[in-house]
Write a structure and sequence with these properties.
about 230 residues, alpha+beta
Length: about 230
């Protein structure tokens, strides 16, 4: 099956992780769905016809036919017994599966009656799977309306944050950051000078110091600007 431009970009991303001598992969999975997975136009048509979810056609450019896509890694280790300077962890759930999954109501047992309708519209699209960080990114899906879903991020302990990016922008940033833990805060309205974000700020600062050398094919200008704004 010939990869689309979006799929090829992700295949290249995994090659970058595998080939970097400064990155140790703890887990990786990247494989196409078996059989003949639907192309973007077919998948979006199925969601509209059978699920009542009409997505903006602009999102078709980042549609992926992977059955599973994730990695967990550490960088900056000097020996086997030393912890990494920073690391990443992500697992992107296939879009149709994500939208058809149940809302994460159980994850927010203290939600008020006013908050529960909002939570019922969330569908998880990206989760940390190995590190135990408990970070989750969700799309806000509202059936019956043609829309580009809002993207919301939660690390459980600090609540929910709306991200200043759509699904395609999220996936583009995920590729560049390689899922560095806490990268989503670069797109949230937060101050990383807060003590709660001390480790996150260190990870993101280190990422933007070393990634231009590790992965020089990418432009980190926008991410640097966002980090400076939040510091």
């Amino acid at each position: 099956m010939e990869p689309t431009p979006a799929e090829r970009a992700w295949l290249d991303t995994f090659e970058e992780l595998r080939n970097s001598p400064d990155v140790e992969l703890e887990m990786e999975t990247l494989e196409f769905a078996k059989g003949e997975p639907p192309d973007a136009d077919t998948a979006f048509g199925t969601l509209a016809e059978h699920d009542g979810v009409v997505l903006d056609p602009s999102l078709q450019r980042c549609y992926l036919r992977f059955a599973g896509m994730g990695a967990s890694w550490g960088a900056g280790m000097t020996d086997e017994d030393e912890d990494p300077l920073f690391g990443g962890d992500f697992y992107v759930i296939p879009l149709l599966q994500a939208i058809r999954d149940t809302a994460p109501i159980d994850r927010y047992p203290l939600a008020s009656p006013e908050e529960r309708p909002f939570i019922s519209e969330l569908r998880d699209i990206d989760v940390t799977s190995v590190s135990g960080a408990g970070m989750v990114t969700s799309l806000r899906i509202r059936p019956g309306a043609s829309h580009n879903p809002e993207v919301w991020f939660s690390d459980t302990a600090r609540g929910l944050y709306k991200l200043d990016v759509d699904l395609c922008g999220y996936l583009d940033a995920l590729r560049i950051t390689k899922g560095t833990l806490g990268w989503q805060y670069l797109f949230a309205d937060v101050s990383l000078t807060d003590d709660r974000f001390e480790v996150t700020a260190r990870f993101l600062t280190t990422m933007l110091q070393v990634f231009p050398d590790l992965f020089p094919a990418h432009d980190y200008t926008q991410l640097r600007t966002r980090l400076e704004e939040r510091l």
